[in-house]
Structures are given as C-alpha cells and as structure tokens.
UniProtKB/TrEMBL annotation:
Lineage: Eukaryota, Viridiplantae, Streptophyta, Embryophyta, Tracheophyta
Protein name: Uncharacterized protein
Source organism (scientific name): Pistacia integerrima
Length: 297
C-alpha cells in the first residue's frame, strides 16, 4: 500500500492506493469475486472483494475517518478529489505474470492521469507500505503441495523475506534522497506469522482450514459448485484459500494503526496520518515520478 498526502493551501489531503496482489478493489479488473457467499458478513452482497466483508484499506479508511478509496475504474465519472484506489486483485509488477490484472505500471499510469486531471502538482509526502505476507501455511499452499496439517512450505518465505528486506532498504534510501519523505512499513509478514502460530492472541480459533471452499483445507473453489461454508467466519483466520476473513483484517489494521515499532516502523499508521508536515519542504512534482522514482519498487 502506498498512501500519499499533500496539504494544499486549502488543507485538503489527497490519498492514493497502489498494490501488488493483496489490496483489492471492486470494479477494477477481470479478476474479481462477484458471486456469493463473498461479501456476506458486511456488505450483504458480493462486491468483487475476495472475502466476506471489508479489506485492509476499508478498515484504514474507517480509522482515518476517510471515505472508502474510490476504485479508479468504477463506472461513471469521478473527480477523485479525495484520491483514488488503483489497486487490483492479484496485481503484479510484470505484465506476463498475469495480463488480466492491473499491474504496477498501469497503476502508475492511471495515477498520472488523475494527477493531471486534478491540475495539481501531486507530490508524495506520506507513504504507507505493507510488506509481503507470510504465506507458507496458507490453506491453498498446503492443499496444492499436499502438506499435512502441521507442515508449511518454507521456500515461499525465502522470497518474501528477500523482498521485504529490499523494501526496508529502499525506504531508508528514499528517506535520504527525498526531503519530507515520511513513511510507515507495516510488518505484515511478522504479524501473519504471529497470527498463524498464536491465533488466540488475536481472537481467532481456526487457522488450518478456511471458512469457505472445497478440499482438505477447503483450499479452493469458494462459492463454486458444492462447497462448504463455516457458520462463524469471525473465528477463522482465512476466508478462502488465500484471503483473510474480515475479522482477521480488522485485527491486522488494529495492529497497523496502533502497533509499536516492531509492528509498524518507523511510524505506525496513526502517527503517519497525524504527522504535521512542514509546508516549507519543497514537494516533488508529478513529472518527477516520470523519472521512475517510484517505478522500481
Ligand atoms: C539490505 O541492506 C543490507 C545492509 O546494507 C544488505 O546487507 C542487504 O543485502 C540488503 N538487502 C537487499 C535485499 O538488498
Ligand atoms: C510477533 O510476536 C513477537 C513475540 O511476541 C513480538 O515481539 C513481535 O512484535 C510480534 N510482531 C508482530 C508484527 O506482531
Ligand atoms: C517488540 O519486540 C520485542 C523483542 O523483539 C518484544 O519484547 C516486545 O514485546 C515487542 N513488542 C510488542 C508490542 O509486541
Ligand atoms: C517539476 O520537476 C521537473 C523535474 O525536476 C522540473 O524540470 C520542473 O520545472 C518542475 N515543475 C515545476 C512546476 O516545479
């Protein structure tokens, strides 16, 4: 997640959401979950979100007292004066990884279109990043590798940890290069690791199996054919093979918003939102994004 804010002379903040894979928006791409029981816990209808209710950005909006981020591709005409959500389910960096998703380059292109239509020099000042999840023990992973209940697939972590290390390095570097750059990295990997091995601390009961789907761990096909559905999703960590339940997301955002420095660092999300920016700091203008300052992440 990347969140950018700029105080303009009228004190209006504009914020934008970008993603790789996990932050999803409805209406955004061919890749969406628009059938029941998706959405059943909160919206009461399928919204395209890959779970029973609200996603991490939905809860962040609630904590920050902002409206939900408007999906950039939502039907109709939108001014995006409060910002926009460019995120798309399963989004990737390389187009060839999945051509049906809105990859990072397309998201940045959409951002440029919005920023020029707002006729503002939008410059990123505050950035929130969510690092790559701990995925070794996801029900879908376990099911596809035929693992036992107490087994996980550790090769995934090697890659995730490498990327998370690179992200931490890159933000440290940006901090030295960009005056006024403020950020929060949410250690999502560690939180999901902790949730997996200590679920009761987060009010969760079931980690191995998901709430909705078919197969050993209900690892696939939620809402398709003859699937199983749990009666109380709020006791489950996973809604389907890959995606957390709304309840688990509420716990995640609680940590992201209020957590200590070993959960969100160097600032937590609340501190990042509340931070007063020094208006004297020269903000980076939109054309500087063309030089690839953001495109390498
Ligand atoms: C991050 O920085 C540390 C210290 O400079 C370095 O040892 C490490 O290799 C870097 N990691 C990545 C993935 O670039
Ligand atoms: C995970 O748990 C450890 C041990 O309780 C704690 O030190 C750490 O801060 C936790 N990290 C996250 C991100 O929750
Ligand atoms: C942060 O981590 C330290 C040790 O790594 C641990 O003692 C402490 O309890 C953690 N804090 C939280 C809030 O989890
Ligand atoms: C924006 O940044 C570019 C590249 O640094 C610079 O050439 C240009 O003059 C700047 N525009 C404004 C309006 O500050």
């Amino acid at each position: 997640m990347k969140e950018m804010q700029r105080k303009n002379p009228k004190n209006l903040a504009v914020s934008f959401m970008f993603n790789l894979s996990f932050l999803l928006s409805n209406f955004s791409s061919l890749n969406q979950q628009n059938f029941p029981p998706y959405g059943e816990t909160f919206f009461k209808f399928p919204t395209g979100r890959f779970l029973d209710g609200r996603l991490i950005p939905d809860f962040v909006a609630k904590y920050a007292n902002l409206p939900y981020w408007k999906p950039y591709l939502a039907p109709g005409h939108h001014g995006f004066v409060d910002g926009a959500n460019f995120a798309s389910a399963g989004s990737c960096v390389l187009i060839e990884s999945d051509p049906n998703t809105i990859n990072l380059h397309m998201q940045l292109r959409y951002f440029k279109i919005v920023s020029s239509s707002l006729k503002q020099q939008l410059g990123g000042r505050k950035f929130a990043f969510q690092n790559i999840a701990f995925m070794d023990c996801q029900p879908e992973t376990k099911q596809s590798y035929g693992l036992n209940e107490d087994e996980c697939y550790q090769d995934i972590s090697e890659l995730a940890l490498l990327l998370n290390d690179a992200l931490a390095n890159a933000t440290k570097q940006l901090e030295t290069q960009l005056p006024g750059f403020k950020y929060s990295i949410f250690h999502y990997y560690n939180l999901l690791f902790n949730m997996t091995y200590n679920p009761s601390k987060y009010g969760l009961k079931v980690v191995e199996s998901r709430c909705c789907g078919t197969g050993t761990y209900r690892g696939s096909d939620c809402g398709i054919g003859d699937y199983d559905l749990c009666s109380d999703p709020s006791t489950y960590m996973y809604w389907d093979g890959e995606h957390l339940t709304q309840y688990a997301n509420s716990q995640v955002v609680e940590q992201f918003w209020n957590g200590g420095t070993n959960i969100s660092s160097p600032l937590n999300l609340k501190e990042l939102f509340e931070l007063e920016l020094d208006d004297e700091i020269q903000i980076k203008n939109a054309s500087e994004y063309d030089n690839g300052a953001l495109a390498d992440e």
